[in-house]
Amino acid sequence: MTATTISPGRRIAALALLAGVFVMEGFDIAAMALAVPRLEGALGLAPTSFGWVFSALLIGLGAGGALLAPLGDRYGRRLLIVGGCIGVALATLATATASTIPEFLAWRLVTGFALGACLPNVSALSAELAPEKLRATVMAVVSAGIPLGLAAAGIFAPEIIAASGWQGLFVVPGIAAVLLALGLWLVLEGGAPEAMGEAGKPAAKLPQLELFRAPWVLPFAVFAAMLSLNAMNLYLLNSWMPTVLPGAGLSLDDAARISGVVQLAGLAIGVIASLLIDRWKPGLSLVLMFGLMAVCFAAIGVIEPDPTNWTLLLMVGAGGASAGGMALPALCAYLFPARLLSSAIGLGVLVARLGAIAGPPLGEAMLRAEVSPQLFFAAAAIPAALCAVVALAVPPALGVKKREEAKA
Cα-flanking dihedrals φ and ψ of residue 380, to 5°? Predict the structure, then answer.
């Protein structure tokens, strides 16, 4: 199933549903973070007990990505995507029945495992369905579902909780996953994907190994480093922001809504960054984005808590972390040839889980140490600044693909 073998209408429907999977993932990520501050009153579970519950989702994502996602190359992406959605639905709905830390941890682990099987195939299929000249932009728009889902969860959480309690935060994405599974089964074609070799060169049996050899090791190292550092910030902030902001004098509902507004800002930043990658200078665009994020986090660390100023700074800082999740996969289309694109995205996401897994426990450690909200957010300036430094190596990394294409 590629852009050349599917009708335009069906292609658009497929891409819209694939974007819906990312929306569902974003909502699911936010659900746990939004539920945690309320579980102490409902179940007697302290927020500082949930660090590894947040990480369980990420551990499952890494395991599912490594063990199941590659099967999409052999048995077809529809099977892994639809099966993953069904697994997410069952595990997310089961999370709504949890009442102890071990139960939350177990169901989040299973949820992550199902997402891990699904998401790399969603990214790969969106690249395969996109016209070659618009691949980066299409990939960015599809992955924009993550900040959109995060935003929707934050904005509508007060109403969902008022209607059905904290459990509703998991029922909503669970039902969405069922509907997505049905729609994707009807729209997507079965069977193994076509090889994406170029210039008559057949795809390698294990293309992942090429990423660890010259000349592709530099582009992959740059891509994976930025993805991992940004993932640390993304999951640190999205896991704990609704818990930390009330410590700065905001209500739980206001903290939830600010979390949603921040994600909408991330959506806008991600689209702008992806357009700049497509039409301007990819390396400089990323240096500016990550550098501005670092400045905003540092600014929060030196000013007194103020809802207006903090919201504006978090829109750029925390919103930029969500934007990075959109822009960096888009950068892949320029770093790697088509025959390595799916492998680079899949392995990059797997490596990024190392940073993502570290984010929630780091936040838990800061909460246990009773650091101020200012210091909590100021700490996020460090990964952002490191991303800006790594982005300086994007131009030479881009040169690798150009040289290889010139040889062909």
Answer: -70, -15
Q: At residue 311, does pLDDT exceed 60?
A: yes
Q: Cα angle vertex 258, ends 18, 96, to 5°? A: 60
pLDDT tens string 7-40 = 788 889 999 999 999 999 889 888 998 898 888 8
- Whether residue 95 contacts residue 107, with contact meaning beta carbons closer than 8 Å, is answered with yes
pLDDT of 191 over the 70 cut: no
For 46, 66, 145, 285, 328, the CA distances from 228, given in Å and listed in that order, are 28, 16, 19, 18, 11
What is the DSSP secondary structure assignment for residue 3, as one 8-state letter?
T
Domains of the chain, residue spans: 8-194+203-407
Which strand (E) or helix (H) includes residue 71?
A: none
Distance CA 228, CA 348 (A): 8
Q: How far apart are the first and last CA of the chain?
A: 26
Quote the CA–CA distance of 56 and 380 in Å, as a whole number. 21
Neighbours of 247 (CB within 10 A): 16
Mean pLDDT, the chain, rounded, equals 85
DSSP 74-93: HHBHHHHHHHHHHHHHHHHH
Of residues 229, 244, 242, the one with CA closest to residue 286: 229
DSSP three-state, residue 191: strand
pLDDT at site 190: 72
In this predicted structure, what is the pLDDT of residue 104?
95
User: Comparing C-alpha atoms, which of 184, 160, 185 is closest to residue 172?
Assistant: 160
Give the integer Cα–Cα distance in Å for 20 and 178: 12
- CATH 3.30.250.10 at 8-194+203-407, yes or no: no
Distance CA 306, CA 304 (A): 6
Q: What is the pLDDT of residues 111-139, one digit of tens each?
A: 999 998 898 888 778 878 877 667 767 77
191 has which bridge partners? 76
